[in-house]
Amino acid sequence: MNAVDVGWGVVLLPGVLYGYAYLCYPALLWLAGRFRHRSLPASDPAQWPQITVVVPAYNEAASIRRTIESLLDLDYPAELRHILVISDASTDGTDDIVREYAARGVQLLRQEQRGGKDAGEIAALPHLRGEIVVNTDATIRILPDSLKPLIRAFEEPSVGLASGRDVSVGSVNVEANRGESGYVGYEMWVRSLETRVNSIVGASGCFYAIRRSLHGSQIPPGYSRDFASALVVREQGFRAVSVDQAVCLVPRTASLQREFRRKVRTMTRGLRTLWLKRRLLNPFRYGSFGWMLWSHKLVRWLVFPAAPLALAALVPLSLVSIPARVLLAGAGVGIGLGTVAMRSPEGRPLPRVVALCGFVLASHVAGFVAWAKALGGESSSIWEPTRRTA
Question: Full-prediction pTM beyond 0.85?
């Protein structure tokens, strides 16, 4: 094998990883689901369980009132629904707004010093009521008829976690990040396929429910709790499932700069979480779940360190190969358009091609930075909520 062959192998590696993770893996899931289709309970329980809805908040005065009102409007027996808002030392009046709803079953748990979302959820453990804990976010909207389908999934004894279906929404003011909507829709489709076969490998941090006995204390601070929760559930012999009828509307981040920072933070934590729970990657012990964890998470994330290596390999290849020159020119155009999108002022409408290039570039650069941070041992337990449009 000569140097040119090695160079083309490096160039083609990201494409192979992409093709397997985003095309072959869902196709294999669909095929497996034709032979083993695990359905979720369709009928309501005789008695709905007591639940606690947990809402972490840091300086959310602009949105917390709408959030609480939407939670109170959910179709669920009021006497069985406890809403717990965890204020991470908010300073903008968030706490005063939450206290207005005390008579309607909304409890405020204030942290006097900022400790992050992880510390808040651990502090909330003694305040939880009932059998099921529902985790949500202060800036998303759960549709009124979405909570019961999520809780109904627990009628199946093997289910330890149920995740909602995110729908990414936005307006003309967030069109620079419109690529996020397509990706979120694809991700929800894959989770639906995984549910039919076995278990999803990560929950939606915006809206998921978990059995109280599996919640919280088994996940150290500084890790991705929605991802880790699905892994803990599998370790304990339960399934994590995605419920298509449990819809929540997730506003897109207002700019690619914000989306970039969010992706760096979430992927860094995700990589650290995967390393913490790396034994679950063993398909000989964990069966199809191990294969799904490899396919859905690790193979996808390996694209990000592979892509810059491929770009670097194209440079010498372009000196001797016309196809390499074409690929290098195409990559240059894509990077250029992506850079324009990433530098675009917040709220500025962009052509669809430019916005898509920006989303892809932001994702790849964020993934590379996340690998560097994770391998360098960098972590932060202080929570910075994603600021989204209303």
Answer: yes
